[in-house]
Amino acid sequence: MKERPIHFPIPFSAAMIPGVLDGTKTQTRRVVRFPKWGNRQTTEADWDVTDTGNGELHLTVRDGIVLDTPCGRSSKAMRDQILRCPYGGPGDRLWVRECWRLSGGPQSSRVIYRADGETAKSFCGVAGNGSHKELEPVFGWEAIKRYGTHCRIHMPRWASRITLELTDVRIVQEISEADANPWVRALTFRRVEP
Predict the structure, then answer these.
(1) What are phi and psi of 31, to 5 degrees?
(2) Residues 24 and 46 in one domain
(3) Beta carbons of 91 and 169 less than 8 angstroms apart
(4) 77-81 long-range CB contacts below 8 Å, 24 or more apart?
(5) 88 and 176 both lie in a single domain
């Protein structure tokens, strides 16, 4: 385990939250995204892919593939790529982003979570970290009240109620006819206190 874990945000849907809260959900899978070169999104077909066994993929441009880049064609940097997990590795922590809203007024507010209607955090009108004041430059108090529930990608760290510790990160291939990219990361975790 790492001495000081790194914290990464991870979005979860409302349907996934109850399983995380009651401990029955201990793994999530996320599609591996291949790198972009210039304006072109590469796909698995552009690379020879090797699983390193530690949650990373080693990518080598396939013979005959020429990718245009802003600095020219087929730059040396494109010859060798390591795709690291954007969520860290074992021992790192994930703070869960979920749909949420604020209730109350500018001097006293509570965070309410859409997944279960639970009120897990309350804040008084104190400026700085841990208050709704962090949202005012982005939304403004009236906008916060007007728009109600906020998308999970807009959840700040202080409003998150769930912290997970990664226990394993693996690359797996799940191949079906519908899969354009069968490479996924299996992230195994346990819930910890923030």
Answers:
(1) -65, 135
(2) yes
(3) no
(4) 78/37, 81/35, 81/47
(5) yes
Residues 95 and 57: their CA atoms lie apart, in Å, by: 24
The rounded distance, in Å, linking the Cα atoms of 112 and 152 is: 12
CA atoms in the 13 A half-sphere facing the CB of 1: 8
In total, how many domains does the chain have?
A: 2
Provide the phi-psi class of 10: left if phi over 0, else alpha when psi is between -120 and 50, else beta.
beta
Task: Give residue-wise pLDDT tens across range 127-165.
Answer: 444 444 444 444 455 555 556 677 888 888 888 899 999
Instruction: Kindly list the strands in the beta sheet with 93-97, ordered across the sheet, starting from the edge strand earlier in the chain.
Output: 7-11, 93-97, 163-173, 183-192, 27-31
104 and 22 within one domain: no
Same domain, 16 and 42: yes
**Does residue 138 fall inside a structural domain?**
yes
Tokens of 113: 């979570």
- Give the range of the structural domain holding residue 69, as residue numbers without chain letter: 7-94+163-192
Q: Report the predicted TM-score, pTM, of the whole model to 2 decimal places.
A: 0.74
Cα–Cα distance measured from residue 118 to residue 125, given in angstroms and rounded to the nearest whole number:
21
